[in-house]
Amino acid sequence: MKDVQGSRDHRGITLQKAGVKDIYLPLEIRVPDGSYQPVLARVSLSADLSHECRGTHMSRFVEELYGWSRRKLSSIEVKEILEAVRKSLGARRAEIELDFRYFIAKSTPVSEAMSLLDYECQFSGVLMEEEFLFRLGVKIPLHILCPCSREISHFGAHNQRAVLKVRVHYPESAFIWIEELVSGLEPLGSAAIFPLLKRADEKYVTEQAYENPKFVEDVVRDAVLLLRSDSRIDWFEVECESAESIHNHSAFAYHSESR
Amino acid sequence: MKDVQGSRDHRGITLQKAGVKDIYLPLEIRVPDGSYQPVLARVSLSADLSHECRGTHMSRFVEELYGWSRRKLSSIEVKEILEAVRKSLGARRAEIELDFRYFIAKSTPVSEAMSLLDYECQFSGVLMEEEFLFRLGVKIPLHILCPCSREISHFGAHNQRAVLKVRVHYPESAFIWIEELVSGLEPLGSAAIFPLLKRADEKYVTEQAYENPKFVEDVVRDAVLLLRSDSRIDWFEVECESAESIHNHSAFAYHSESR
Amino acid sequence: MKDVQGSRDHRGITLQKAGVKDIYLPLEIRVPDGSYQPVLARVSLSADLSHECRGTHMSRFVEELYGWSRRKLSSIEVKEILEAVRKSLGARRAEIELDFRYFIAKSTPVSEAMSLLDYECQFSGVLMEEEFLFRLGVKIPLHILCPCSREISHFGAHNQRAVLKVRVHYPESAFIWIEELVSGLEPLGSAAIFPLLKRADEKYVTEQAYENPKFVEDVVRDAVLLLRSDSRIDWFEVECESAESIHNHSAFAYHSESR
Amino acid sequence: MKDVQGSRDHRGITLQKAGVKDIYLPLEIRVPDGSYQPVLARVSLSADLSHECRGTHMSRFVEELYGWSRRKLSSIEVKEILEAVRKSLGARRAEIELDFRYFIAKSTPVSEAMSLLDYECQFSGVLMEEEFLFRLGVKIPLHILCPCSREISHFGAHNQRAVLKVRVHYPESAFIWIEELVSGLEPLGSAAIFPLLKRADEKYVTEQAYENPKFVEDVVRDAVLLLRSDSRIDWFEVECESAESIHNHSAFAYHSESR
After folding, report:
1. Are D10 and A239 in contact (CB under 8 A)?
2. What's CA B40's distance to the chain center, in Å?
3. Which of the two ends of chain C, N or C, has the fewest CB atoms closer than 10 A to its terminal CB?
4. B82 touches B128 (CB < 8 A)
5. Chains contacting D with at least 3 CB pairs below 8 Å?
6. What is the pLDDT of residues C129-166, one digit of tens each?
7. Is C127 exposed, middle or buried (0-12, 13-18, 19+ CB in 10 A)?
8. Residues A23-61, buried b or exposed e (16+ Cβ, 10 A)?
């Protein structure tokens, strides 16, 4: 059968990316205690395409990905996938994004009831010839209470759910756990979010938030100071977006830096 | 050209609905002051299909809808669309849903600054032979403050954005404006939502909410009492969903009744 | 601490539903071979609320759900959750919806390459006093080719991805696997969908679809005949929605029946 | 009342962005014939925040935006909004994104039936001191037919709806209409998309697509050649994403260049 994709192209354009998007895949993610957590990942995978070829071989991306079904994955294996794709497609550059919800067990502050909170996470990797760039992304839900509303009101203060979205790059010689980002950044809101709160816990987080008011700008600046202080991180971006409870829109602050 | 859709079907099944979904259409909605507001509507339109025909004529739905582009619409015109569809397709039953964002001007409680708040609305209509059933739906964003959190805490109380979703049926002899549902139901939260709040307004709504704590259950029960008291309404359903600020999930309450 | 939720309400309204929505939970779903598949479920859980109480105890829903984290689930356990909720909240009626993606291994028609296709599934259950109503929902992606376009054109025919959404009720004495619904309904499109297709497979499904043109109305009618013939099923609804490739909207057909 | 936002900050971080997101606003967009089209815009608006201030004044963004309600907008007015924001907030940099659906009338190829197709568009602007950067984005739905499937199959070829997403930058001295991008790029698919097609039109586009097979890589390369040839454009990015009808995922190609 004729290989139409492999036929010679004459437009002279090496495409930066050609590949697949929105593939769902069951994977397992490494957990600090040595075990693995099964996750549902949504994946996009692509490679550059030489000006010589009319089309990429899309089925090879899919084939490579399904070889990883239900297998264990960390940044090391992300690089392996990209190396295999580069080789299989004869590409210079390959790129992947894996988005998944990851659960972390949390104990409530007073009653110590256990439950699981889910965090939207992303592994993204680019392999450019031999250079591998890996980024870890985590979205951390927070509770924030408005400093202005508290200051100007006789009682009460509007508060709301916010999300702190962070992406970091660290070199291949380093490693950062999702749990490290969460445990460092989650305390930067007015209070943490819990799936389950008994009455004594609810009193605790309500009062904690009232005593600890934060603008989205405060959360981002505190996050910047924390991320700067981690010598493993050589690039980060951080955004805090708040579903304002007195408005029908969001407030946000954003900052990005590289070392 | 052969009419494949019109060919005889032998499976003996009269389908309840066949039609189109997710068509975008610019329309104009009647405003109480006599003017019209341009809106962007997402539309689904269908009819039943006799067991005698293999397929419906999908292009006739689209043709009928585009004839209404940029035209003025209220429940009366919704019935006209369905009558035209029934006739054009030889159907017993036709059904439509139009979803759109509708803006209402709001003045803030203290500084009286004007702005526009958008409400997700729905016109839905069913024409079954000569009987026309019209339903009006509105989603009203609210600010609610937790009575439990307030009661048990020394200071503060968690609060959040909620949405009160209401759908009502009224007979052809009656008429209800979107503005009537909004002005009746919006006060049932702890405070109303505004796109724009100056500092004096923010103090006002913060304190108002603190003095007026509401569970989602409270909002729905108060809405039930209000909707029961409107003699034009002969069916309603109402749900209040709250994006809990101390959790990563929603709380909700729901109730439906017919007279 | 005062139980504000438990305080006496005087509005005289027994609410039909009060509960939680959009909780993410890791679960395991029973597979026909006796094993279990880990899934990510999005859950809503509610109960009715007596006119005597001001609010439901939202934390009890969450507590009950987290007790099921990473545990094995089928319709039997869905009933157990609802029984526990009814008891814990003193409710007459409890209701749950669990939505999750479920993977089934598929072999391509010619090259017999294996891959995994994901299906959006739903377990929904209502327990009304002692009566338990369970519904299984599955969304099956299909490839459909337009009979009209094929008939009127000299060559080619437009085709597209469609989704066949089915929900069935069967009594407690019966049991239906997700795999059974998929294997029965998936052949009703012009061709099945595969994550991975080698060139010989692509030729096969292209030609199969061309020889087997289907309107959404055809798919739904064929599904009705199949579902009627399954004596275990005493209610079903079925919809086929097609992302028309020559339009920017969808076409759909819908039918529902009970025995 | 105390200005908490304006209080002195000591963390020494000038934030790159602080502002508002997901505000809905009714606007009017300039049309080539000199008239204006009412649209529903979703807006985000932000400015940088000096290291000296604790928070930005969020209400000023909202106030500025609502001043533009129902007013006429093109790239010139986008700059005016940003200038007003920079001044009002004492910022160096201001940034806006406006997303809206825009309708263009289309006549079908044979029967010349008129209907309206909606395109998702974006105006994005950055004002950095005196330098203004404006980008126009348009998403164009297309019908594409797979060259490989056609080549290897005895009859038929799988085809599907795709979307060509383009963003271009042009200098302040130039101007490009949405209609120009659409009329240039829409012919690059296998066939154009129409909301309404009569039977003679359906035959036409079916056969046109079969004679004009295109990979997503073909569409992007043809778009690159076209965009390069427009001397007004000094930066562009273009992506074609195809909802593969034989798979449950998308294929895509992407390229970006500056002059």
Report:
1. no
2. 14
3. C
4. no
5. A, B, C
6. 989 999 999 999 999 999 999 999 999 999 999 999 99
7. buried
8. bbbbbbbbeeeeeebbbbbbbbbbbbbeeebbbbbbbbb
B241 — contact with chain C (CB < 8 Å)?
yes
CA distance B137 to B139: 7
Q: Are strands B36-49 and B72-73 parallel, antiparallel or unpaired?
A: unpaired
Distances (CA, A) of B113 to B31, B194, B217: 21, 10, 32
Q: Which DSSP state fits B34?
A: S
Higher pLDDT, D1 or C87: C87
Q: CA-CA distance, C143 to C160, in Å (whole number)?
A: 6
**Alpha helix ranges (H) inside B50-198:** 58-66, 75-89, 147-152, 178-185
Interchain pair D250, A21: CB under 8 A = yes
Residue D22 makes CB contacts below 8 A (sequence gap 6+) with A249, A250, D42, D43, D44
Q: How many CA atoms within 13 Å lie on the side-chain side of A21?
A: 15
Tokens for C131, please give them: 């009566």
Tokens found for residue B250 = 């929603």
Taking CA atoms, C164 is separated from B10, B55, D206, in Å, by 22, 17, 24
D85: closest CA of chain B, how far (Å): 16
Tens of pLDDT along D19-65?
999 999 999 999 999 999 999 999 999 999 999 999 999 999 999 99
Tokens coding B24: 């975008």
Token pair belonging to A132: 């591998």
Long-range contacts of C184-189 (CB under 8 A, 24+ apart): C184/C226, C184/C230, C185/C138, C185/C140, C185/C223, C185/C226, C186/C140, C186/C142, C188/C142, C188/C164, C188/C214, C188/C219, C188/C222, C188/C223, C188/C226, C189/C142, C189/C143, C189/C144, C189/C162, C189/C164, C189/C214, C189/C219
